[in-house]
């Protein structure tokens, strides 16, 4: 009886861990898509060019049905040759807000 209970408990634990891992994979894929959309929106609306990267993705609010409203901050990507220190300070270009359906709702340029 104890072995059966222990086996069921271990199976439930494995089930919860696998659900958590798949949720994290989905969030990272979703964040990668948001990052690409945010960089494209900053390029188009703020008229900046050059290499860019996302510095932070933050949740602004939770949606009623599912998902969340997110704000993605975009900075310039410094060019650091080899092991030398970076002499160029990253520039803050602005942020892009996404609605519950991951549609761009607002682009704020820093300049």
In what order do the strands lie side by side in the largest sheet? Answer: 1-2-3-4
**Strand fraction band?**
25-35%
Residue-averaged pLDDT: 77
The structural domain count equals 1
* Rg over CA atoms: 20 Å
Shape assignment: flat
Distance between the termini: 68 Å
Largest sheet features:
4 strands, antiparallel
Q: Unreliable runs, pLDDT <50, ≥5 residues?
A: 12-26
Structural summary, described in words:
The protein has 111 residues and is an alpha+beta fold. It has one domain (2-109). Helix content is 41%, strand content 30%. The protein is built from one helix and four strands; from the N terminus they run αββββ. Strands 1-2-3-4 form a four-stranded antiparallel beta sheet, covered by helices on one side. It is flat, with a radius of gyration of 20 Å. The N and C termini lie far apart (68 Å).
